[in-house]
Amino acid sequence: MSVLETERLLFRDHLPEDFEAYCAIETDPIARRFVGGQPRTREAARRRFRTHLSRRDGRLRLWAAVLKESDRYIGYCGVYPHFGKAGAIPGEGTLGFTLARDYWNRGLATEAARAFLDFGFRELRLRRIVASVQAGNMASAHILEKLGFRLWLLERVNGRCFYHLERRAAANQDNGALRAPGGAVGEGLAPPARS
User: Count of domains in the chain?
Assistant: First the structure.
């Protein structure tokens, strides 16, 4: 089943034949540098892939990203539940996009993120979509900035710093740059000072 299509991308269920391409992303230390901090083993990638294969209910999840011109699996993207301390938060989703390195710097991640942001608000009727970016991942931060996300929390976990960003479904929201609370454009992207 496909859920969404853009000019260059198709988003559909994961299929067993996607595993090798999926595994190549998950075991790539550069692709995983800002997503988990380290590559997965092949066996860990296989276990994770099985969760994608088993999720067929609902549209709030990560989908296989396929480049239409070649019908090639290039990653996974989507809006999945945003979890708080008490479980999934109703009306909220988390935007995620991960592509194989061969497809970076082509505007595909922006195309995917923009499509799922629109899908989350228009089709899923979410009131808020969040995203988290590890400090140093300027490419993903730039995509979210272009899409109007705002910084709402800085967090340090196990020696790594994360920007937590949000976008609300307000009709009057502009597409301005990320800002630290009360700060100037771009200030929200600098890692917090070490204490």
Answer: 1
